[in-house]
Design goal:
123 residues; alpha+beta; Alpha-Beta Plaits; 4-stranded antiparallel sheet; 6 strands; 33% helix
């Protein structure tokens, strides 16, 4: 048993990033291809833990991507990176509205299993 790592004592807080996008009709396949590329790149960034994509049940042109990061600083480094900006720039013409991004943190201390972190680094 590796125990627990309490990140909040180091000044780090696990965060969730919610990215909402509204697509133009007929752009779903291209959008899916580009967002898959974006996620593939994100997976190799320091601090990336996980990500998932959801689409609206009643509106398949509404997309939500939820990612988990070890800290806001690590997310911001990826968010501003030239690699990410180059990919997200290709998404812009596919959208009918500006992207909405929300960064959330847990209201209390967040504990992350060291074993889980190590398993994610080896993936």
């Amino acid at each position: 048993m590796l125990g627990w790592l309490n990140l909040s004592k180091r000044g780090d807080t696990v965060i969730r990033v919610i990215i909402e996008r509204k697509l133009k009709p007929g752009k779903e396949i291209e959008f899916s291809r580009i967002t898959s590329e974006l996620r593939a790149q994100a997976m190799y960034q320091p601090g990336y833990v996980s990500g998932e994509t959801w689409v609206g049940n009643a509106d398949h042109l509404y997309s939500v991507i939820i990612t988990t990061w070890l800290s806001a600083e690590l997310w911001e480094a990826w968010e501003k990176s030239p690699e990410r900006l180059a990919i997200t720039e290709r998404l812009e013409p596919l959208l009918v509205a500006p992207v909405r991004t929300v960064v959330l943190r847990h209201p209390g201390e967040v504990e992350v299993s060291v074993g889980y972190l190590l398993s994610q680094m080896g993936s």
